[in-house]
Amino acid sequence: MEQADQGAVRPDSITEVGEDAVMSVAVSPSVPTLTEEEQEELRDELLRVEDEVVTLSQVLAAKEKQVADIKRKLGITPLNELKQNISKSWQEVTTSTAYKKTSEGLSVAGQKATAAFTSMGSAISRKFEDVRLQSISNSFGKIPSNKSDQMKSLHLLDEMRLPTPL
To answer: Which residues form the signal peptide (predicted)?
Structure first.
């Protein structure tokens, strides 16, 4: 029992939230009342378990320090670990079913958008060609009266000629 009391007095022990409240809470009427001996046993067990928690926390801290030292000796830096974690996470995302379905859907949407823009571009190009041909046709409708006007019309037609495909 002295050993359990020493664990509670240690300066390096970690006080848990509500630890003091456990000692000072009055027994509720709905809980069966305990004898003095049972209360003392429970207090001793509580102190023993708290001491174990402190010990385990210290062991964990020592193991974490050991892991950090080993990683440092191996040249594993936090940045390298972060890169590996991101790479692994990205690989998991790209192999997921949701990602594959989304990727396929976006691919189909992109193909349809490309086809729509191509079609729209062709329609606009044809419309400009129609307007150009109509202006040429209107130029032919006016019959030049003299040789000078005829030469100007031929020169104009030559300038407006469609480029020939290679």
So the answer is: none
Please name the residue that has the structure tokens 């329609």. Answer: 123
Using CA atoms, how far residue 66 sits from 15, 69, 97, in Å, is: 25, 5, 39
- Whether 8 and 46 have beta carbons less than 8 Å apart is answered as no
Q: What DSSP assignment string belongs to 119-157?
A: HHHHHHHHHHHHHHHHHHHHHHHS--SSHHHHHHHHHHH
CA distance 124 to 110: 21
Q: What is the predicted pLDDT for the residue at 132?
A: 80
Question: Mean pLDDT of all residues in the chain?
Answer: 78
| pTM (two decimals) | 0.36
